[in-house]
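Sequence in, structure out.
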Amino acid sequence: MLQEPLTLYKLIVLYMLNRVSFPLTMAQVSDFILEKEYTNFLTLQQAIGELTDAGMIETRSVGNRTHLVLTKDGRDTLSFFENRINSSIRGEIDAYLRENEFTLRNEVSVQGDYYKSTSGEYEAHLIAKDREIKLVEITLSVPSKETAAAICDSWQEKNQQIYKYLVEQLF
């Protein structure tokens, strides 16, 4: 009895990943599914874990985020069972992805992480991508962890202006 709803949650995750041309983060998928109250957090984690174990999705750690990527097996499975997702649920997913595409894409395309270098300084490593192509990659050495964290936070908000500035100055 519990297996049927779990199957639906798996199909919803596969459907979401199939509807975008970029990876979604675990948080993005969770936010949508939990906000719609389709299931609870633990059951969703179980569904994602089983999809990963079955090779239908891949998880990739990028900074402090986990990206979910649909595999060929996942796409094939979805093509057989997509009709088991209620049309209203598919419509809600499609509307959500359409309305939030820019924000969702930006969240996975802009990465900022920091670490302590061998010299004792901290390095903020910043990347902006478009469809898996790196547009810009910057590493800044700074004296403190707090400064590195602040740079990474600012990068999330200001990456487009910084990229535009660099292009204007260099060309």
